[in-house]
Amino acid sequence: MKKILAVLLAALLLLTLGCGSKNTAADDAEEDHAALDLSQPLKPPASFEGKRVLVAFFSRAGENHEVGYVEKGNTALLAEQLAELIHADATFEIQTVIPYPIDLKEMTEVAKEEQAKQARPLLASKFDDMAQYDIIFLGYPIWYQDLPMPIYTFLESYDFADKVIIPFSTGSGNAMSGKEADIPNYAKGAAAFPGMCIRGKTVRDNATETNKHIAVWLEGLGYHN
Q1: 11 within a domain of the structure (yes/no)
Q2: What does the alpha-carbon distance between residue 140 and residue 201 come to, in Å, rounded to a whole number?
Q3: For residue 45, what are the domain limits?
Q4: CA-CA distance, 162 to 185, in Å (whole number)?
Q5: CB 58 within 8 A of CB 187
Q6: How many domains does the chain have?
Q7: What's the whole-model pTM score?
Q8: What's the pLDDT tens digit per position in 146-187?
């Protein structure tokens, strides 16, 4: 009886190990799968064909979390890369009349006070041709689990009827804040598509990992080689 039990247990162990190996291999294959080849030209989804694309973004230079003092913000770097990959028709940097402090601690105090008051900082300029664009990729850094207040000013400054807004962001991790789901509440008439967040330090220091995130996201939106 003991021999029979031993044989049965051994067989069960082998079966379990076999299933585990199969699942691991499948997971590894999925992880190794290159969603898109970003070294090759990208084609837009069929629903984007014939439509004009704008990449608008807010970014901040100065002292940034994890990367120190920089002359160009993490989101600006990501926006430039994205605009080139998708062959955007135009880019627009959202800037405030009063710049944010260069010092990170001072900036934090200003940004948190703006959030508490739900402020709408004045923007330095307006994108005059918004009516000519159908797809807006909107970039920003995640500030304290929210969109920076200048983004709300931007969203409330235009008529977004029948337009698509696609958010992308940088932050301390690779997860969106969840606030992007509220974008249509401020950009009246707009439809929001799934967004992407990449850790700011990754955008600046790891091009390979950055490309991987972008490729998976763009493929999900329907872009293809």
Answers
A1: no
A2: 15
A3: 36-221
A4: 14
A5: no
A6: 1
A7: 0.84
A8: 999 999 999 999 999 999 999 999 998 888 888 899 999 999
> 118 pLDDT band (50/70/90 cuts)?
very high
Give the integer Cα–Cα distance in Å for 85 and 106.
Answer: 35
Backbone φ and ψ of 22, nearest 5°: -65, -45
Q: State the Cα–Cα distance between residues 29 and 62, nearest whole angstrom.
A: 41
Q: Please indicate, yes or no, if residue 5 is contained in any of the structural domains.
A: no
DSSP strand pairing (196-199 vs 90-93): unpaired
Give Cβ neighbours of residue 203 (< 8 Å, ≥ 6 apart): 74, 77, 78, 170, 210
Residue 49 corresponds to which amino acid? E
Q: Do the domain assignments include residue 13?
A: no
User: Any idea how long the chain is?
Assistant: 225
**Which H or E run contains 91?**
strand 90-93
CATH number at residue 208: 3.40.50.360
